[in-house]
Amino acid sequence: MKKIIKTDKAPAPLGPYNQAVLSGNTLYLSGQIPIDPKTGEMVQSGIEDETRQVMENLKAVLEEAGMNFENVLKTSIFLSDMNNFASVNGVYGSYFNEDTAPARETVEVANLPKYVNVEISMIASK
């Protein structure tokens, strides 16, 4: 049985999908981009601020499902430019305990929704 997870503390989906789906104890979080849910505006003040907004959006969805970053098993990071890897990694890493950090891949892509620089999705479990 699946349960749809949604919160107004993260941006509304841009298409026919949900912020997250809980199936059993596993939470599948859709990719988040750097939209400020309070204003609906894109954060464009630099890759570190963009990444921080993405992580805060993901945090809000995790919290709505009764979870936190310690519950995250796997992340996927999509970058428009791999030259931003170190900056993104620095902000991303501040949200996790290095000893219990999730599995992850980071890939450079040709383009992302709304032409953003970073998108991150996650899988978590209770």
From TrEMBL:
Stored NCBIfam families: Rid family detoxifying hydrolase
Q: What is the lineage of its organism?
A: Bacteria, Pseudomonadati, Bacteroidota, Flavobacteriia, Flavobacteriales
Gene Ontology molecular functions = deaminase activity
Which Pfam family, any one of them, does this sequence belong to? Ribonuc_L-PSP
Q: Can you say what this protein is called?
A: RidA family protein
The species is: Leptobacterium flavescens
Q: Which family does it belong to?
A: Belongs to the RutC family.
Gene3D superfamilies documented for this protein? RutC-like
GO cellular component term, pick one = cytosol
What the entry lists under InterPro entries is as follows: RidA (IPR006056), RutC-like_sf (IPR035959), YjgF/YER057c/UK114 (IPR006175)
